[in-house]
Design a protein that fits this description.
- The complex is a heterodimer of chains A (807) and B (346).
- Chain A has 807 residues and is of the alpha+beta class.
- Chain A folds into six domains: 59 residues, no CATH class; 117 residues, Beta Barrel (OB fold (Dihydrolipoamide Acetyltransferase, E2P)), CATH 2.40.50.140; 201 residues, Phenylalanyl-tRNA Synthetase, Chain B, domain 3 (3-Layer(bba) Sandwich); 72 residues, Phenylalanyl-tRNA Synthetase, Chain B, domain 1; 199 residues, 2-Layer Sandwich (BirA Bifunctional Protein, domain 2); 87 residues, 2-Layer Sandwich (Alpha-Beta Plaits).
- Helix content of chain A is 26%, strand content 29%.
- Chain A contains 21 helices and 42 strands.
- Chain A has a seven-stranded mixed β-sheet, with helices on both faces.
- In chain A, β26 and β27 form a beta hairpin.
- The longest helix of chain A has 19 residues.
- The radius of gyration of chain A is 41 Å and the shape is elongated.
- Chain B folds into two domains: 78 residues; 235 residues, Bira Bifunctional Protein, Domain 2 (BirA Bifunctional Protein, domain 2, 2-Layer Sandwich).
- In chain B, strands 1-4-5-9-8-7-6 form a seven-stranded mixed β-sheet, with helices on both faces.
- Classes of the chains: A alpha+beta (807), B alpha+beta (346).
- At the A-B interface, α2, α8, α11, α13 and α14 of A face α5, β1, β2, α7 and α8 of B.
Chain lengths: 807, 346
C-alpha cells in the first residue's frame, strides 16, 4: 500500500525537523513496516525546467540534435539530445550533472556526469518522463517530456515548478494483516499523532447535504451475517467529467488509474479512509431496489473487467429488483458501471463479513483493492463516515448534484462496546519496565481508546475501528503501549531463571557425530536435497507412484510426490557432478516419507499417528569398481556406531543382481547397499560410471547403536598368523566359509583376505583366494603343534565342505 | 629349460634394480631381447625340445616375456619423474615437489552453521529438539492460534497432502510451513519452565528464485518461565546474535504480526555489509532477521499451561538467510543443488 505524506498532513501535523528517512524509520519501528519510500524533491534534485532556444543537427549523428537551452541563472547551455519531439520554445526537464536518472527508464538510477556524445560535449541531459520518474501524463513514446510550463519556471527545480514535493511511502501489506484500520491515510495519521503527540484532525461531517425530495432506494439485506451494514444513497444531476488535478495527482502517486470524477471519488475515499465504496449508474439499477443475497450455485455474473464469473452459494451478490449488479466486496458489475452518459448515481458504502469476501476473492483469483480491505474485517462505523465523505466530495465536484431523500442505512452490526480491564502490574511486568500510569493512559487515549483509571487497573474501551478482531485481550493493549512508548526506550534485562542441566536429544547428538565421522573420516561430501520428487523420477527407478505420498496442491509437477528413499536425489546429484568429477562420495541424512504409520501423534486429543518420516542416511560412491569401497565405509560406520550386524544377500530391483547386500541388526533390516542397475543409471543419463548406493534407516541406527564406554585388555600373549591359499568355487560365498572356519576353534581370532586372483592361470569355475588366519589365546602362549592341528582341520573343512582346492 | 626362463626373469629383476640412467635400459633390453639376446636365444632353443614338451614350455616362455616387459615398463616409469607417482627417486630427492593430492569430505554449510548455533544455545541452557516435517494442521496452524478462517493461513502458501481411502486421515496433513509447529508439541512434552530451540526444514508452495525456495530452514526458539518480559526477550536475542556473529550486533525491534505471539515483533540487525549506512542488500541499513514475540496465552493453553502462571517468548531465525549472510552466498538454490563445486568450499 502506498501512503502520501501530503495526504497524511491533512489529518495530522508532522514534526518539521523529520526528513523522509527519519519519518520512514518512525513508521517502521512503531507502526507498520515501510518497504521503501520515494522522496520526490530528493529524487528530482539537479533537474531544472529549461527552455529550448535553438536546435541544430549533430555533425556526427543523424538522430541526435544539439540544443541551446535557457537554464535561467545558469545561462545558456549546450545539450545533445535524441528526442523525436524537440521543438523551439518547449520547456523541458533538464538534468544537470549530479542528477539521478534511469537510462531509458530502465535499471538502477545512475548519477549523471558531463559527457561527450559523439564528439560533442553536453552540459546535461533533456529527460523523458520515465527517465526521471515523472507521471504518465508526461510520457511520449521516443520523446522527451514537455512540461507545458510558462517562462516564469525557467531555471527552477522541477520539483518546485511541478509541485512535486511529496514523499510516497510503500508499506509492506503483510505487516498490515491484522490492522484493518491502517489500510488508509486516516488510520496511519491517527497513529502518527499518537507517536508525535500532535493533534489528530478528526473528520467531522454533517447531514446537511443539498437535497431534493424523493424516494431513495429500498435496501434489503437477506444475509445479515454476511452483510451487517449497508448504506446507500441516490444522487441526481451528476455530471461525469475528468477529475480535478488534485485528485488525479493523488491517485496517480498512490498507484490508481484515474477514470472519471465519480469513480475517482470512490477510490480516493478508500485511500483516505480505508472504506471501499462502489458507485452504480442508478439508471441501470432497476426497481429502485437493492437486495443483498447469497449467489445461487452456478449463477453467472459479469464483473467490471468483462469477465464472466461462475459463482457458488458462498459468494455474496448485490442485486437490484431483477439481476445482480455487483459481487459484494470484490468488484462491481459491468451492467451498472458509471459511463459518460450517467446522470444519476447510487453510492454503496457497506460492511461485509471478512472470511466470506476472502473465500470469494481467493476462489476467483480476484484480489482487488476492495477485497484486500474487506477481508481484514472493517469497522461497520467506517461505512457511515466514508459515505458522508463521499457525498461531500460529489457535491464539491458536481455542484449541481442533489441527494435524493436521505442516506439509507441498514445497520445490523453489533453496537456492543468491547471493554478490557488492563492490570497495571501485569502491563509493567510484560514490558519489563515501570511505565508511569499517566503515560500509559496518555498513549491509549491518543490511539482512540477510552480509559477510566480504577487505581490498580484501567478500564479500557476499545474504539470500534480496533474492535473487529485486532484488540481482544490485555496482551494486545500491552503491545499498543510498548510500541508507542518506543521499543528502543525499553532497557534490556536478563531473565532470572533456575539453573538446571538441560535435556539433550541423543539422536540429534548422534546425527551430528555421524555426519562429522562420514565427512571427516570417510571423506564424503554432505548434500541437502529436496523432499519432493516428480512422477518421471519415480518411473526412472521402476517404482510406482502409489507407494509415494502425494502433494495435493503442488504448483510444479516436478514436486508432486514426497521421496520415500534418498536414492533418486542422490542419483541426480551423481549425474550432475559427473560432469565435473570422475570420482566422488556423497552422503545425505534426511527424512523420507512413507504411507505407513510413524511415531508422531497428529493431535494431542486424537489417536491418529502421522505417516512414517524416519531420517535416512544415504551414501553414494561414483567411479570404477567401488562396491567394496562403499562396503568398507559401511563397515567402518557400523563399527563407529558399535552396532552388531549381519549381512545377508538378497534382491532389490534398484540394484544389479548379486551386487547387493542387506544389513540386519537384532533381526531387523537397518539398511542395504549395492551397485545400481545399468538400466536405471541410463535413465539418469549416467553411462560411463559405476554407481554404488547404500541407504540406512538412521532411526534404526540410533536404536541399535551403543554408547558404552568399553575397554578390553591389550593382548598379553603373542598372536600367531598362518596363511592359506586356495582355489575357491565361484558359487561359494566367503561369509559362509569365514563363519564355518571360525566355528572350528575359539582361538581363531580373525581371517583376513590378502589376495584374490582370477584369470588364465586359474582353473575355470574357481578363483584363487589367499588369507591370513590369526590365532590368539588369552590364557597362554600358543604352541605351533596346536595351531598346525587347527590349520589341518581348516584345510580339511575347506576341501570337504566347500570343494576348495588348497594350493 | 623351464628353469632357464625363470632364471632370466630373476636376473632381469635384479639388474633393473641397479640400473641408473635411461641409456642403460637400451643396453639391458638389447642384452635380453636383442638379436643375440639371452631370451631370444633361449626361444630359439625351444625347437630342440621334444614335440610334446614344446607347447608347455612355449606358454611359459610367453608368460615370462610378458612379465619381463612389465618389469621394464615399471622401471621406466620410475625413472621418469612425471609418471613417478610414488615419487621413489632414483637420483637424489626433491622434498619441494607437491604433496600427494588428497580429498577431504565436506559438511554442508547449513550443518556447519547449525552446529555453531546449537553450541551457543546449549551454552545458554536451551535444549535442541527435532520434530516432524510432515505435520498436522493442528500443530502447524490451529495450536498456534491460527484458526481455519484466519488470513495468516494465506500468508503462507502451504503444501497440503492428498489423502484417500487407502491413506486415510481425519486430520489434514501439511508440509510444515514453520518450525513454530513444534511449540505446542514441546510444551506438551516438557511442560514449564522450558527453554528450547527446534531447527529444521520448512516448506512453502511458491515459485523459486535466487532468494526464495520452496524448501528452507528455520530455527524456532521458545522460552517459558514466570514473568518473562519484552526486556528479557531483547536481552536474550542480543546475546544469541552476538554469539552467532561473534561481535556486538546492533539490533532494533519493531512491530510485527504473528498470531501465536502478542506482542509480536520483527527484530532487525544492523546490516553487516554496509554497517548500517544503507546498501543494495539491506536498503535502509537494517536487515530483517528474527521474528519474535511474547507467547500468546492461547498457545500456552493449547499446550496445557495456565497463562496466569506461565509466560514466555518465542523467536524464529531465518536460518537459510543467516547461512547465506555469513558466507555471502547469493543464490539460495545452491544450498539444495548437491553441486560439489559448491559443497567442497566449506
Amino acid at each position: 500500500m502506498l501512503i502520501s505524506k501530503k495526504l497524511l498532513e491533512n489529518y495530522v501535523e508532522l514534526p518539521k525537523e523529520l526528513d523522509a528517512q527519519e519519518l520512514s524509520e518512525k513508521i517502521s519501528t512503531s507502526i507498520v513496516e515501510v518497504d521503501n519510500f520515494f522522496d520526490q524533491e530528493k529524487e528530482l534534485e539537479n533537474i531544472i525546467a529549461a527552455k529550448i532556444t535553438e536546435i541544430n543537427n549533430h555533425p556526427n549523428a543523424d538522430k541526435l540534435k544539439i540544443c541551446q537551452v535557457d537554464a535561467g541563472n545558469r545561462g545558456i547551455l549546450k545539450i545533445v539530445c535524441g528526442g523525436n519531439n524537440l521543438s523551439k520554445g518547449m520547456i523541458v526537464a533538464l538534468a544537470l550533472p549530479g542528477a539521478k536518472v534511469k537510462w531509458h527508464g530502465e535499471g538502477e538510477p545512475v548519477i549523471l556526469e558531463k559527457a561527450k556524445i559523439r564528439g560533442i560535449e553536453s552540459d546535461g541531459m533533456i529527460c523523458a518522463a520515465e527517465e526521471i520518474g515523472l507521471s504518465d501524463s508526461y510520457k511520449i513514446p521516443g520523446g522527451i517530456a514537455d512540461l507545458k510550463l510558462d517562462d516564469s519556471s525557467i531555471g527552477k527545480n522541477i520539483s518546485t515548478a511541478l509541485h512535486l514535493n511529496d514523499v510516497v511511502f510503500e508499506i509492506d501489506n503483510k505487516s498490515l494483516t491484522n490492522r484493518p484500520d491502517l489500510w488508509c491515510h486516516y488510520g496511519i495519521a491517527r497513529e502518527l499523532s499518537a507517536l508525535f503527540g500532535t493533534r489528530f484532525k478528526n473528520l467531522k461531517f454533517s447531514d446537511k447535504f443539498k437535497k431534493t425530495k424523493g424516494e431513495g432506494f429500498n435496501i434489503e439485506i437477506l444475509d445479515k451475517n454476511a452483510c451487517p451494514r449497508y448504506l446507500g444513497v441516490l444522487i441526481e444531476n451528476v455530471e461525469i467529467l475528468e477529475s480535478p488535478q488534485w485528485i488525479k495527482s493523488y491517485l496517480e502517486k498512490l498507484g490508481i488509474r484515474s477514470i472519471n470524477n465519480i469513480v475517482d471519488i470512490t477510490n480516493f475515499v478508500m485511500l483516505e479512509l480505508g472504506q471501499p465504496l462502489h458507485a452504480f449508474d442508478s439508471s441501470n439499477v432497476s426497481g429502485n431496489k437493492i437486495i443483498i443475497r447469497k449467489a445461487k450455485k452456478g449463477e453467472k455474473f459479469k464483473t467490471l473487467d468483462s469477465q464472466t464469473r461462475i459463482l457458488t452459494e458462498e459468494d455474496l451478490l448485490i442485486c437490484d429488483g431483477e439481476k445482480p449488479v455487483g459481487l459484494a466486496g470484490v468488484m462491481g458489475g459491468e451492467n451498472s458501471e458509471i459511463k459518460e452518459s450517467t446522470k444519476s448515481i447510487f453510492i454503496e458504502s457497506a460492511n461485509f463479513e471478512a472470511s466470506g469476501i476472502r473465500k470469494t476473492s481467493m476462489r476467483l483469483g480476484l484480489r482487488t483493492d476492495a477485497s484486500v480491505r474487506f477481508e481484514k474485517s472493517l469497522d461497520p462505523e467506517l461505512a457511515n463516515l466514508a459515505m458522508h465523505r463521499a457525498i461531500e466530495l460529489v457535491e464539491q465536484l458536481c455542484v449541481k448534484s442533489r441527494v435524493v431523500g436521505e442516506i439509507v442505512d441498514k445497520d445490523f452490526s453489533s453496537k456492543e462496546k468491547l471493554v478490557i480491564n488492563l492490570d497495571l502490574k501485569f502491563t509493567n511486568e510484560k514490558i519489563g519496565q515501570e511505565i508511569p500510569t499517566v503515560k500509559i493512559i496518555e498513549i491509549l487515549k491518543s490511539l482512540g481508546f477510552v480509559v477510566k483509571n480504577k487505581k490498580s487497573y484501567l478500564e479500557v474501551t476499545v474504539p470500534s475501528y480496533r474492535a473487529t478482531g485486532d484488540i481482544k485481550i490485555q496482551e494486545d493493549l500491552v503491545e499498543e503501549i510498548a510500541r508507542i512508548y518506543g521499543y528502543k526506550n525499553i532497557k534490556v534485562q536478563e531473565p532470572i531463571v533456575s539453573l538446571k542441566p538441560i535435556y539433550r536429544d541423543k539422536s540429534l547428538q548422534l546425527e551430528r557425530n555421524l555426519k562429522n565421522f562420514i565427512a571427516k573420516n570417510l571423506n564424503y561430501c554432505e548434500v541437502y536435497n529436496y523432499s519432493m520428487i516428480s512422477e518421471d523420477e519415480i518411473a526412472s527407478v521402476f517404482a510406482k507412484t502409489e507407494d509415494y505420498i502425494e502433494i495435493e496442491n503442488a504448483v510444479s509437477k516436478n514436486l508432486k510426490y514426497l521421496r520415500n528413499s534418498l536414492s533418486i536425489s542422490l542419483l541426480k546429484n551423481a549425474y550432475s557432478n559427473l560432469r565435473f568429477y570422475k570420482e566422488f562420495k556423497i552422503f545425505e541424512i534426511g527424512r523420507i516419507f512413507k504411507k505407513e504409520q510413524g511415531e508422531y501423534k497428529a493431535n494431542k486429543n486424537s489417536k491418529e499417528i502421522l505417516p512414517m518420516q524416519d531420517k535416512f542416511l544415504g551414501l553414494i560412491v561414483c567411479g570404477k569398481n567401488k562396491f567394496f569401497d562403499l562396503k568398507g565405509d559401511i563397515e567402518l560406520i557400523l563399527k563407529f556406531l558399535k552396532i552388531d550386524f549381519e549381512e545377508v544377500t538378497g534382491d532389490n530391483n534398484l540394484f544389479e543382481e548379486n551386487k547387493y547386500l542387506e544389513y540386519y541388526s537384532n533381526g531387523e533390516l537397518i539398511g542395504f547397499f549395492g551397485s545400481v542397475k545399468k538400466q536405471i543409471l541410463n535413465n539418469f543419463d549416467i553411462d560411463k560410471s559405476e554407481i554404488v548406493f547404500g541407504e540406512f534407516n538412521f532411526n534404526k541406527l540410533y536404536k541399535y547403536f551403543k554408547d558404552k564406554k568399553e575397554y578390553s585388555e591389550i593382548p598379553k600373549f603373542p598372536k600367531m598368523t598362518q596363511d592359506i591359499s586356495m582355489l575357491m568355487d565361484y558359487s561359494s560365498n566367503w561369509k559362509n566359509i569365514e563363519k564355518r572356519i571360525k566355528s572350528i576353534s575359539s582361538i581363531i581370532e580373525e581371517l583376513e583376505i590378502f589376495d584374490i586372483y582370477e584369470g588364465e592361470k586359474i582353473e575355470s569355475g574357481y578363483r584363487s583366494i589367499a588369507f591370513h588366519v590369526t590365532f590368539y589365546d588369552n590364557t597362554k602362549t600358543l604352541v605351533s603343534e596346536e595351531v598346525e592341528k587347527i590349520m589341518n582341520e581348516i584345510r580339511r573343512v575347506l576341501v570337504s565342505e566347500f570343494k576348495a582346492k588348497i594350493r | 629349460m623351464e628353469n632357464l626362463f625363470k632364471q632370466i626373469k630373476e636376473k632381469v629383476e635384479k639388474e633393473l634394480k641397479e640400473i641408473n640412467i635411461s641409456d642403460d635400459f637400451e643396453k639391458l633390453e638389447k642384452k635380453y631381447f636383442g638379436r643375440k639376446g639371452e631370451f631370444t636365444l633361449a626361444i630359439k632353443n625351444l625347437k630342440d625340445l621334444a614335440e610334446e614338451k614344446r607347447p608347455v614350455i612355449g606358454k611359459l616362455a610367453n608368460d615370462v616375456k610378458k612379465e619381463i616387459e612389465e618389469l621394464f615398463e615399471n622401471a621406466k616409469s620410475k625413472l621418469n619423474p612425471v609418471a613417478n607417482k610414488a615419487k621413489e627417486f632414483l637420483f637424489g630427492f626433491d622434498p619441494t615437489l607437491q604433496g600427494d593430492k588428497k580429498e577431504l569430505g565436506h559438511l554442508h554449510p547449513c550443518t556447519i552453521v547449525l552446529n555453531d548455533v546449537v553450541d551457543v544455545m546449549n551454552s545458554m541452557g536451551f535444549m535442541v529438539l527435532d520434530g516432524p516435517e510432515l505435520e498436522s494442521e493442528y500443530y502447524n496452524f490451529e495450536s498456534l492460534n491460527i484458526p481455519k478462517t484466519h488470513p495468516a493461513r494465506e500468508m503462507q502458501d502451504t503444501y497440503f497432502i492428498k489423502t484417500d481411502k487407502n491413506f486415510k486421515y481425519k486430520e489434514k496433513l501439511v508440509l510444515r510451513t514453520q518450525t513454530s509447529a513444534l511449540q505446542v508439541r514441546t510444551i506438551e512434552q516438557f511442560g514449564a519452565p522450558l527453554r528450547a530451540i527446534f531447527p529444521g526444514r520448512c516448506f512453502r508452495n511458491e515459485a523459486t528464485d535466487a532468494s526464495h525456495d520452496n524448501t528452507f530452514y528455520q530455527i524456532e526458539g521458545l522460552m517459558i518461565d514466570r514473568n518473562i518480559s519484552i526486556a528479557n526477550l531483547v536481552s536474550i536475542m542480543n546475546s544469541i546474535l552476538n554469539q552467532i556473529f561473534k561481535r556486538d550486533v546492533k539490533t532494533r525491534l519493531r512491530p510485527g504480526y504473528f498470531p501465536f505471539v502478542e506482542p509480536g515483533f520483527e527484530l532487525d540487525i544492523n546490516c553487516l555489509i554496509c554497517g548500517g549506512k544503507g546498501c543494495s542488500v539491506c536498503g535502509d541499513g537494517w536487515l530483517e532477521l528474527m521474528p519474535c514475540g511474547l507467547v500468546h496465552p492461547k498457545v500456552l493453553e493449547y499446550g496445557g499451561l495456565d497463562p496466569k502462571e506461565w509466560n514466555g517468548f518465542a523467536f524464529g531465525i531465518g536460518f537459510t538467510r543467516l547461512v547465506m549472510m555469513l558466507y555471502g552466498i547469493n543464490d539460495i538454490r545452491l544450498l539444495q543443488s548437491g553441486d560439489l563445486r559448491f559443497i567442497k568450499q566449506f
